[in-house]
Amino acid sequence: MQPVWVKPPQILNISQRTLHLWRVNLAIAPDDLAHLSTLLSDEEAQRAQRFRFDRDRHRFIAARGTLRQLLSHYLQSSATQIQFAYGAHGKPEVAYPKTDLTFNLAHSQNTMVCAVTQQHRVGVDLEFLRETSDILDLARRFFQPAEFAAISQLDETEQQQTFFRLWTAKEAVLKALGSGLAGLAGVEFRWVGDQLELTRLEQETVAPSKWLIQGFTLPEGMGAIACEQNDLDVDCFEWGQ
Amino acid sequence: MNTQETQVKATLLNLLKNIAPDANFEALGETEDIRQALGIDSFDFLNFMIGINESFGVEIPETDYGKLMTLKDIIQYIEAHRT
C-alpha cells in the first residue's frame, strides 16, 4: 500500500477494530531533541550515551522520546511515567500504566514507524532498500523453497524489491510474536496475485489466515505490519504535523 | 580469553565492521547485545551469520540465533561447533 499519512485527531482513541500506524521523522531540531532527552528513563539515557556518533545518539533519543510522547496520548499518562518491559527477544511493551495497548516500532535511518493496537499482538518492520549482489543466496538460505523459487524467477530489480517485501513481512510477523529470528523457518508466505498471504505459522494458536499482513512503501524504503487480527481498519498518521 | 578465542573475536569484529562500518567497536563489551549496541538491523544480522559460516565453516541453524546475542555467546558457539 501507499499510505496516506494524515494529521492525527486532537484526542486519540483506538478501538479493538483499528490499527494506528505512525510515521515519525527522527531528524529534529536541537531544541526539540533537548526536550525529548528529558523524557528518557535513566536506563535509556545511559544507553543513548553509549553511541559513539552524535547521529546515532540523536536518532535514539528522538525515537525513544517521541515514542513516550506518542504513547502518553493514548495512556493519559505523562511521557516520563511510562515504564517499559522487554520480552525474551527484546520486544518492548508498556509495563506501566496498566493497559491493553500494544505497540511495536521499527526505524531505518531517519524514519521511525510505530504500530499501535488495542489488545492485539502487532509487529512492524522497516528496511531501507540497499543494493545487495547476493540477494538470491540470501533468499535460498533464509526463505522457504517455494518462496525462493518465486523470487528466482524474477528479473534482478524485481528480485531485490520482492526480497525486501517478503523479508519485512516475515520480520513483522516475528516481531508481533516476539520470537526473534529463531522463528524464521516457521513463517511461510505465498503470493496471491501481487499480495502476500501468510500460509504457515509454527507453534502458534492463531491461524495464518487470521493475520493481517500489510506491506507499505516509503521514500526511505519498504515496510510491513503484521497483526493477529485481520479485519482491522488501518489509519496512518504523521507525527508532528 | 586464550589465543584462539582472541583470533575468533578479531575475525568477528572484522565481519561486523563490514556490516556496520560506523559503529563503535571499542565500546562493544563481550557480554553486550550486539544488535542493540551497534544498532544493526535484522537484515545485517543475517549477513553476519553468513559471514560466520564462511569464515569458520560453522553452519548456524536459525533456531540457534536467539542464543547468539553477544560476542561471548558467539565465540563459545564457534569453539563448540567448528571441526
Give a concise summary.
With 241 residues, chain A is an alpha+beta fold. Chain A is built from six helices and eleven strands.
Explain how this protein is built.
Chain A: One of its GO terms (biological process) is lysine biosynthetic process via aminoadipic acid. Chain A: This is 4'-phosphopantetheinyl transferase superfamily protein. Chain A: Keywords: Transferase. Chain A: Belongs to the P-Pant transferase superfamily. Gsp/Sfp/HetI/AcpT family. The complex is a heterodimer of chains A (241) and B (83). Chain A folds into two domains: 18-118 and 232-238, 4'-phosphopantetheinyl transferase domain (Ribosomal Protein L22, Chain A, Alpha-Beta Complex), CATH 3.90.470.20; 126-227, 4'-phosphopantetheinyl transferase domain (Ribosomal Protein L22, Chain A). Helix content of chain A is 32%, strand content 30%. Chain A contains six helices and eleven strands. Chain A has helices at residues 30-37, 42-49, 54-75, 135-142, 145-152, 156-177, and strands at residues 18-25, 83-86, 92-96, 101-108, 111-118, 122-127, 187-192, 195-201, 212-218, 221-227, 233-238. In chain A, helix 1 crosses helix 3. Chain A is globular, with a radius of gyration of 18 Å. With 83 residues, chain B is mainly α. Chain B contains four helices and no strands. Chain B has helices spanning 3-19, 34-38, 42-56, 71-81. The chains are: A alpha+beta (241), B mainly alpha (83). Chain A binds chain B through residues 47, 50-53, 56, 60, 88-90, 108, 125, 127, 137-138, 141-142, 167, 171, 180-185, and chain B through 22-24, 26-27, 33, 36-37, 39, 41-43, 45-47, 50, 62-66.
